[in-house]
Each structure stands twice: as C-alpha cells, then as structure tokens.
Amino acid sequence: xxxxxxxxxxxxxxxxxxxxxxxxxxxxxxxxxxxxxxxxxxxxxxxxxxxxxxxxxxxxxxxxxxxxxxxxxxxxxxxxxxxxxxxxxxxxxxxxxxxxxxxxxxxxxxxxxxxxxxxxxxxxxxxxxxxxxxxxxxxxxxxxxxxxxxxxxxxxxxxxxxxxxxxxxxxxxxxxxxxxxxxxxxxxxxxxxxxxxxxxxxxxxxxxxxxxxxxxxxxxxxxxxxxxxxxxxxxxxxxxxxxxxxxxxxxxxxxxxxxxxxxxxxxxxxxxxxxxxxxxxxxxxxxxxxxxxxxxxxxxxxxxxxxxxxxxxxxxxxxxxxxxxxxxxxxxxxxxxxxxxxxxxxxxxxxxxxxxxxxxxxxxxxxxxxxxxxxxxxxxxxxxxxxxxxxxxxxxxxxxxxxxxxxxxxxxxxxxxxxxxxxxxxxxxxxxxxxxxxxxxxxxxxxxxxxxxxxxxxxxxxxxxxxxxxxxxxxxxxxxxxxxxxxxxxxxxxxxxxxxxxxxxxxxxxxxx
Length: 513
Ligand code: GAP
Prior knowledge:
Layout: H1 3-16, E1 20-22, E2 34-36, H2 38-57, E3 62-64, H3 74-78, H4 81-84, E4 86-91, E5 98-100, H5 101-127, H6 133-139, H7 141-162, H8 166-175, E6 192-195, E7 199-202, E8 210-213, H9 219-223, H10 226-232, E9 239-248, E10 263-273, H11 278-294, E11 303-307, E12 317-325, E13 328-339, H12 341-350, E14 356-358, E15 363-365, E16 368-375, H13 376-387, E17 388-392, E18 398-402, E19 413-417, H14 424-435, E20 441-443, H15 449-459, E21 463-467, H16 469-474, E22 476-481, E23 487-491, H17 495-503, H18 505-510
Parallel strand pairs: 3-9, 19-20, 19-21
Antiparallel strand pairs: 1-2, 4-5, 4-6, 7-8, 9-10, 10-16, 11-12, 12-13, 13-16, 14-15, 17-18, 21-22, 22-23
Helix pairs in contact: 2-13, 5-7, 5-8, 7-8
The structure holds glycyl-adenosine-5'-phosphate.
C-alpha cells in the first residue's frame, strides 16, 4: 500500500474507533480544528502524562505550572509576536488559493532531492549486488545536478528569508517555475506577511475593550512567571519550568489532519541557565529529547534532527526533531536556544527586573534559556501512524492492530465473558470492579469472542482477559496478548501484579534512566 492510502486509512480508522472527529461535524466541520473522542482523549492524556512525569517528576530541578491562555497584550508586543510572528503568503490569481511561500519553495526543494533519490534507486535495481551507492552518489552527473540545484535554491531562499526580502522570495518561486497545484498556472500575487495570532476583545463595553490575543505558544506564560516560580520554589540555576496547554495559530495552510491545526496543544519546558553555558545545555536537551522519543520503542530511523535554516527572532541555535509521518519527515518537536531575549524584553516592557542572583558567582544576571517544545497532537499523530498495522494472519484472515506501547493504550485490558450467561458476565464485572481503581478496564459481552478480540486489537488494548467456564471452577482466566495473540491461564489473584508490570507508565519511565 502506498503512503497516501495508508494515511487515508489511518484517518478513517481514527474516526471509526473514536479517536478523532472533525470539530462540529454536524455543521460540516471547522477547518483545521479537531475533537478527540473517547479513545483519543485517553491516548492523549497518557501521552501528556508521560511527558509531564518524565519532565517534572523525573527531574528534581524542573517544576510544572499551568498559566492562562489569555495574557496581558503587552506580553506579545514584548515577545516580538505582534511584529514578527508572520508567515509569508502568496495567492494564485487563477485558483484564488492561498499558500505559504516558504512551504512552496521547501516542497520544491524536497521534490528535487526526491528526484536524486529516484536516480539512485533505479541504478541500484539496474546494477544489483555490484552497485556501489556511495560512488554513484559522488559521480553520477544527474544526481549531482539535482542536488546542486536544490542546494542553490536553498541558499537563495535562506538569504531572502534573512533579509525579509519578499520580492526575492516571489522571484525564486517564478525562477523555480512553481505552479499552483489547483490551477496549474504561475499567475502569482506578491508575497505578503501575515500575522498568525488570533485576537479577541476583553471587556463588556466595546469602546473600552482591550484587544487581547489567544496565546500562539505556551512559553510566554512561563517567562512572565519566571521570577514567581524561582522565588517561591527557591529554584537554583540551572532549573526548568514545564507546562502543557492549548495554543492557537491562524495557519494559512492547515492540512494533513491533526499535523497542522489552528487550535492545538503544546508541551513546553524552558530551562534557565547561566549565560555562556547555553550551548552545553542545548546539546544536552537535544540528546535527552531524542532518547525520550526512542523509549516509545518505534524504529529509531523514524526520527532525525534538522537544523533550522532561518533562526527565529529569539534564537541563537535551533533544531527540530523530525518524525517520518506517512507524508514524509516533518517537525515533531523544536529545541531552541532562546538566549536572554524573552526575559530581557519583558524587563524592558514591564519595567521589572527579571534577574537571578547567582550565589556561586556572587552576581545577578538575566538567565539564558534552552527550550524544548513539542506539539501533543503531532506526537499523537506520530504514535498513531507508527502503531497502525494492517496484518494478514496465518489463517488468511486480516486484522488491524494498533501496536501502541502498552502504557499508552487507551484501555489497558478488556475483561470478556466467553458467553453472556451462566454468571460469566457477572464474574467479569467483579474482576473489572477489583481492577478499575488502578487501570482503565472495560468489559463487554456482545458479539462472538473473536469479534471482540478484533475490536480491542483495533484500539490497541494490550490484554484481553477471558472469563470462561473454568473460571467459575478454579478462579483462573485466560489472558490474550494483543501483538502475539497468544493466550495463557492465570489466577485472577495475579492479574493486578501482572498488569502493573506490563502496562504502567513506570516501565516507560524506567527506560529513561
Ligand atoms: N515556543 C516555541 C514554539 O512554539 P514552534 O516550533 O513554533 O515553537 C513548537 O512550535 C511545536 O508545536 C512544534 O514542533 C509542533 O509540534 C507544534 N505545533 C506548532 N504549530 C502547530 C500547529 N499549527 N498544529 C499542531 N502543532 C503545532
């Protein structure tokens, strides 16, 4: 199956099994806004909890807060978002469709690199085992030409971005002969900057109302609370403040399901350090965060670092951890060395000192900040697309299984009476009642047992516990493993310890050590 079809199947699977619905679907939906259903909400909570525990609970020097979405409007003036949180957009005059100019160019570069890869693949097939890939890449004129062209475009693009040269960006689109995918024409408007923040009014009387913004990142809630937390928590540098919460961006190109949304959730941590040590901490958080992703147990080749071409207005180093989604490698998490930009700006705009007295140096300074910032919805999509598997079983039948890490599964175990009579359902309920305080457990008696197994495979339930006639005699059940589909018998009395060992978050957190 090609990746496009796979992605379509993942989207329809997540709707069919209650993971994700289009927002306000009965009114034909709201573009780029999604709701999490009964399964999605559990999976999302588990991901958030895993992140929170790994940041806050596992680090003595990181604490968590929960700041408001609405903030004083000056916050966004100080942070630079009012003036600089823009995307360059361009319209096609024939289709009337709007695009991000930078995305058009980046996609063109990716296409060029894709052509080079295709040449290598073709040659590998043609030459078979004797193929020397490294030599071919270094010497084949067509491969070299594609790569050279891509690099030249990338350089021109980088320069134009740095100079904020919108005419140059448009010229590059023309020079690359990029056409609108809808109209197929090169009839483009000028490139304009478009601010991504949503605004609204606070106050009941319109003349007195203040324009305020829906926060486009959670980070500023941390910066404005830096001193509150440092003083009340008696925090010593280096220390971190973590937070999860909603953020809002009026994205021009909002597509690819929950990858790019207008309302989404971020999980951010600002790590405050002594000036001059920020690059050491930047490297530390790069490897710590990559390691965190690897603990989820998916193929390590699915993640890669990508250094930013253009640094944001606040950064002196920045990279993304990219994940290979069904539509290619894309940003999953950002790691940014934000210098003292934010705290200094807030000092200037608020007139309050936001400094730390370092007892070892016997001096006060504005700390530098290294930030880790991951989108919870993107993490959800990465995990969902990696876990989704369509399998043909040895007996020729098919199943869809969500091979989620056990600790993240929405339901940890399903207790299934073999038949809905002779007290088996009541026994199943008794088991649920004993386990429900520690785990999300469900019971259901409808349909043949095989069908119920399949349904739980499809939502990623690690274990199906079956209550049969033997259970009524000797207080044992069978426990079926989602991935191997193997079953074994076990006393009911051992279930809690067994589930604890296999499905608790502790098992994932242990891997971080
Ligand atoms: N505080 C830094 C910051 O916000 P960012 O790279 O703009 O940096 C961080 O965003 C992360 O938030 C991204 O890596 C991505 O996972 C997520 N994110 C950003 N925009 C998003 C959107 N429109 N929809 C879903 N997730 C988004």
